[in-house]
Amino acid sequence: MTTAVAGRTAPTTPARSFFTRVLEVSLLLVAVGAVGQVTSAAYGAFSLMQGVPVEEGFAAHHLIGYATEIVAVVVVLALIAARPGIRLSLVVLAAFGLLLLQPVLQRLDSALLGAVHGLNALAIIVLCSGAATALRARRRSVAARPVE
Question: Quick check: helix, strand or coil at residue 10?
Answer without folding.
Answer: strand
